[in-house]
Design goal:
The chain is an alpha/beta fold. It is built from 11 helices and 16 strands. The longest helix has 21 residues.
Length: 341
């Protein structure tokens, strides 16, 4: 089969023929119809996570997919050949910039009935991230106030909608060109980050979903009320995360050092800081599919590229100009899907 791979960190990202995957007893083989690009694909390509996510080379990149089941392992019970599915594979089994992938049954869900393959492929990583931040860790309740940074990005566009579904008042940061977009997704308060200081305009918030740099991270502390939660998906990793992934003693000490400043500032303000790296979870994707089919969440597509244009799709995300998700059409007609923005 054809796949896009790297042979070394920061190396050339190229297409080549690789062996077809074979399912283990609890695996499902999916013929990938569409995949989507996430910033973590760029970080993995450049080796930024190699201390916590070491990979053997050559490495097929890509961590979102939608497609059809073409084979199942002997122990698989929930899926059959022909099922239309979507998924984010486990961190140890990425590789969706390919024509096929073998994925654990537990990481897979039936795709939302109301979505095309292209739209469904835009959801897994960003929707799981939003769910694990807002539902699982923050346990957002009706009437609470949530700040979601970078509302026009992949995670932001889904997190705004999910937070509104949960009954929260939602603030977000965005550029002027994206204000109408984030308002259409349900944002109650929109801060133009080029003109206004969100830390001076917002206060008394229960949760902040942080995805930016260190300056915004520190400023976010002043937005939270005592007992509030600052949850970052862009770092720095904390000791709790190190324990979660079973990191070595050296890595645990490194994470403790890297996060000591923000954790100390958070303690002084009586708020909680934590780092989250999304994990694969088919059961959560099944719940998300219900919300999508009920009309509570919709994907936002920036641009669709053909499979041969996968490197260009990566470049689009790396440019920082995408709004919503960049999708790669692995099979079918990429021109059939027009962008939402």
């Amino acid at each position: 089969m054809k796949a896009f791979v790297i042979d070394r960190y920061k190396g050339e990202f190229t297409a080549r023929e690789v062996p077809d995957p074979a399912p283990g007893s609890s695996d499902v083989v999916v013929a990938i119809a569409a995949a989507s690009v996430n910033p973590i694909d760029l970080k993995l390509r450049d080796g930024e996570f190699k201390a916590i996510l070491p990979y053997k080379m050559p490495l097929i990149l890509g961590s979102d997919l939608a497609g059809a089941v073409v084979a199942v392992g002997a122990s698989v019970r929930r899926f059959k050949i022909g099922d239309e599915v979507y998924a984010h594979p486990d961190k140890d089994r990425i590789g969706t910039f390919a024509e096929r992938i073998a994925i654990a049954e537990a990481d897979l869900a039936l795709k939302p009935v109301s979505l095309s393959m292209t739209d469904a492929a835009a959801l897994p990583l960003v929707a799981l991230t939003a769910w694990q931040v807002l539902v699982e860790r923050a346990q957002v309740k009706p009437g609470q106030k949530v700040l979601i940074h970078a509302g026009s990005g992949g995670v932001g566009t889904i997190a705004i909608q999910l937070a509104k579904h949960l009954g929260a008042t939602v603030a977000t940061t965005a550029g002027a060109a994206n204000i109408d977009l984030v308002r259409s997704l349900g944002a109650d308060v929109v801060i133009d980050y080029r003109k206004d200081d969100f830390a001076k305009r917002l206060s008394g918030y229960d949760v902040v979903l942080h995805s930016l740099g260190s300056d915004a991270l520190k400023q976010s502390l002043s937005v939270l009320k005592p007992g509030g939660k600052l949850i970052s998906i862009s770092g720095p990793p904390d000791p709790a995360f190190a324990r979660e992934i079973g990191a070595s003693w050296v890595v645990r000490q490194l994470f403790r050092l890297l996060s000591s400043g923000i954790r100390g500032k958070a303690r002084k303000r009586g708020v909680d800081y934590s780092f989250l790296l999304m994990r694969a979870d088919g059961a959560q994707l099944a719940e998300i599919a219900k919300l999508v089919d009920a009309g509570a969440i919709r994907p936002v597509i920036d641009r669709v590229f053909s499979f041969d244009e996968t490197p260009a799709a990566m470049d689009r995300v790396e440019s920082g100009r995408s709004r919503g998700k960049v999708v790669v059409q692995v099979s079918g007609d990429a021109s059939a899907r027009q962008p939402d923005v």
